[in-house]
Amino acid sequence: MAGLSSLAAAEDTATRRVLVTGLSTYWGGRLAQALESFEHIDAIIGVDSEAPTRELERTEYVKVSNQHSLLERIVRAAEIDTVIDTRLVVNSLMAAPRLAHENNVIGTMNILAACTGSDSPVRKFVFKSSTHYYGAEQDDPAFFTEEMGRPHPPHTGLERDILEAEQAVGEFAQRNPHVDDHSPLRQRARPRRGHGLYPDAAAADGADGPRVRSSPSIRARVRRRPRP
Fold first, then answer.
1. At a CB cut-off of 8 Å and minimum separation 6, what does 196 contact?
2. Are the C-beta atoms of residues 194 and 165 closer than 8 Å to each other?
3. What predicted TM-score, i.e. pTM, was given to this entire model?
4. Chain segment 39-78, per-residue pLDDT in tens
5. Which of 22, 88, 202, 213 has its C-alpha lying 20 to 30 A from 107's C-alpha?
6. In this structure, what DSSP letter does residue 183 have?
7. Could you give the angle at the alpha carbon of 171 between the alpha carbons of 41 and 224, nearest 5°?
């Protein structure tokens, strides 16, 4: 399985100033480290309510949670052209239901609101989601493509939160057609424990690992679903 460094493998010289949310998380910190190796990227700003846990050289850390007004000021003041949102909680053991909902749904909406508007400098938005988006039922197809939705309704609050967050990203894409979806950053990564470059990734994000998508549309890509 490819790791998140593959998201930056294809150099995109149009990406110059990047905002990474969830810098203290495994994926946020690891992604910021990978982005630092690209000399054409002028600035990397990481935001989180917690300090980063990885050693970073070029990334500028700003302590802020999901407040819309503060995030919008950062986006515009730093002239951010690419936002990568890595905050999504996909493991129900990592946060209480209320906190997970506030992070996954309210937080996603606030970050999207900070990127909204024809005067916004943001031209790419990358969202780390989860295979919980599809679910895992016995009668599900053996393969899912990115065009396929969830065949069954969600069973847990966490699954409902992830569906709401995905819906918010889709609505953002429709309202902001100027945001480019032709980004090499939109490749997928769903590493599992002991595979690829990140053997601790599954422990960091939950057993299913992350699903990464960008707006407004996602390239079709067939992938195995997790078995129940």
1. 1, 2, 3
2. no
3. 0.76
4. 999 999 999 999 999 999 999 999 998 888 999 999 999 9
5. 202
6. -
7. 75
